[in-house]
């Protein structure tokens, strides 16, 4: 077996290749070669026999990533300090949040499931700094296991900074639901974006049923929340953050009705967030009348071609051309 | 609506099952040598007064009842199951004229922490109106001849959602009793008293009235027949004769004022719009079960070391503050009142239930009258919210409101003495109380007799164009309002032999026709000149609000 292969066993093939391309890399490689040349198992890792599928007991990522440690008192204290200082200042500077209708939570007691539409990575920070006490400091965030927990570093960071717990979004997994339910049963509130990801075109996506299911299972109310304006500040696919203003509109807590299916409750949750969205552009009474007549503008926008959907976004989506103006003189 | 379908009565009216011990009923403490000093409100401050042992009593009100666990569900239940009327939703239809009237800033005191009960009820009503597709909706602050509510006060009462939906279009506004186009006469009572009412209300297909019944004086036909009417109707019950015969203001069935108002209610019922009447009651948790002022509503001998530290700290802080800063600090206080009941439907039937609920919260039985009654007057009154408690309002609060917290017989015997504690500053809010200033300077030096001032001065003040202008366009009480404030105490003025104010500004107190005293001991000495030596004394402890059922 070549020394390169031995080094690759230790460091990973990609790192070895990269190192080999540089002068410094070649020096390091020679050093590794000298170190590994004489070592034998069990001093070095065993090689897998050809044709054998090795079961790894290595670090778990994705939906199996453990986040229990992030709910320890020390981690919570660090998270609260970070949210209340750095995150709050950053959110205020970038997104100027206007938090409205918090009085609707006056009678809310115990853990709740906060459900919001999702346009931007900014939404989590906006909500973590907007949801009132006591829920804000006893909060976990449902985060995509395939995105935030794809490796140990991002997983640890997400768990520590925003209290993320991994949720499968590509498939229906019992472990994700069990984890979320256990956390709620332990007294934590859950922040979840049931669209399953950020908006692709400025309009919302259909809600998935996880929040409705968890509400019924844990007997916890759902608090619908509408977040407006975050997509203009930091939209999906853009690395550029533009300062702007946002609105966070809290709705009345809702419970699943007796015998109501998760599917039906999920529709009510989506409708509640739609009405909150309508409230932010029209007044409350007009929004209520539209809600009762079934005329609330849907979060998903018009059922039309993409250009018409973009057109319908209208003034809510302002884009500045980066091209120089013609004629350039 | 939070859950599909209507809530069950059990769920809607479930009370909070928190860790607090069961609230105790009111009781009367006989003061002995071991009794600690008793708390008195003293305007923007407090006094601890040692009352004479063996001949003094302190009347404590019942402790705050637990609030409803789901107030919004209770409201929904009341709207869907009204008393002697069809459910509200069935009375609403597209194309109708709907008017929602609500109590003004004088209720409750102190202002309640948000969301205000009015907001909860109005949103529930509007939710049903939205479902029915009602477009023509007006909301009116039923303030009678009180000052107009400011934007922030309206926002607090109805909430930002309702305010932003209706105020910009001019559909949420204050009642204007002096608008010649805005008032209409409905008819006259069997005693030939004219009944006028807000024109929009009269022309509506349905009036929904939203009450906060903080005390038993409030609600019933008093809401519509005083809040939405004008001087031409009010003068028939807000006058010295009626108020002298009102025994008491908080005993609806023995109140001449309420009897007169109910007569006017008959006219409104017959000739006015359909009325869907909603009444709510709140508990007496004015200063919270914990927090910086919680000790105020505890019985003094139950103050623990923390309470005593808080009280001493507060007193030291207040001493260092200017009067203006103290007023602001107290006016910014929002009471964590909890709603204890809500009922809707027919005005009379709803009000009878409400009265029971209010009295349950306030009544303490008391045997026999005493020679002296003492009150501590607080920093606020219905006519000085976000304002200054001027001497006339002090008189009204003490002799009008506090004296009338009785059922049966007054707490003090005829010819007895009222001793009140309040700084009674010779100071007036120039925007809110312009006619009070002239009343104090022109009327009181001439006479303090309600009947005499009514004949000599009332008409002039009531019809003064400048006062009318300020009432309509600024935030001033109506020109006649200081007379009404004074008449409010007419029964007490006739009943007692003297009124003494401890700690009051001597000039202002003497102008009121009362006697100033520096200390409670001095006041008791002065009182014995009127009622004889070794007088018996009863103190109405406040907070919490108490109404003595005197036998």
Describe this protein's structure.
The complex is a heterodimer of chains A (329) and B (551). With 329 residues, chain A is of the alpha/beta class. Chain A has a single domain (62-314), classed as Glycerol-3-phosphate (1)-acyltransferase, CATH 3.40.1130.10. Chain A contains twelve helices and seven strands. Chain A is globular. By secondary structure, chain B is an alpha/beta fold. Chain B has two domains: 24-63 and 362-550, 2-enoyl-CoA Hydratase, Chain A, domain 1 (Alpha-Beta Complex); 71-282, LarA, N-terminal domain (Rossmann fold). Chain B is 37% helix and 19% strand. In chain B, strands 1-4-19-14-16-17-18 form a seven-stranded mixed beta sheet, sandwiched between helices. A six-stranded mixed beta sheet of chain B has the order 7-6-5-10-11-12. Chain B has a three-stranded parallel beta sheet with strand order 13-20-15. In chain B, helix 2 (71-80) packs across helix 4 (117-132) and helix 15 packs across helix 19. The longest helix of chain B has 16 residues, at 117-132.
Residue stretches of chain A low in confidence (pLDDT < 50, at least 5 long) are: 315-319
Helix and strand element order of chain A? HHHHEEHEHEHEHEHEHHH
Which spans of chain B have pLDDT < 50 for at least 5 consecutive residues? none
Give the number of DSSP strands of chain B: 20
The neighbouring-strand order within the major sheet of chain A is: 1-7-6-2-5-3-4
- From the coordinates shown, what is the CATH architecture of the largest domain in chain B? Alpha-Beta Complex
Q: On the 0-100 scale, what is the average pLDDT of chain A?
A: 83
Q: What fold name goes in the CATH topology slot of chain A?
A: Glycerol-3-phosphate (1)-acyltransferase
For the secondary structure, the number of strands of chain A is: 7
By helix and strand content of chain B, what is the structural category? alpha/beta
Largest β sheet strand count, sense and barrel closure of chain A: 7 strands, mixed
Q: Give the count of structural domains of chain B.
A: 2
C-alpha end-to-end distance of chain A: 65 Å
Helix tally of chain A?
12
What is the gyration radius of chain A calculated from CA atoms? 24 Å
Overall pLDDT of chain B, averaged?
95
- CATH homologous superfamily heading of the largest domain in chain B: LarA, C-terminal domain
CATH topology of the largest domain in chain B: 2-enoyl-CoA Hydratase, Chain A, domain 1
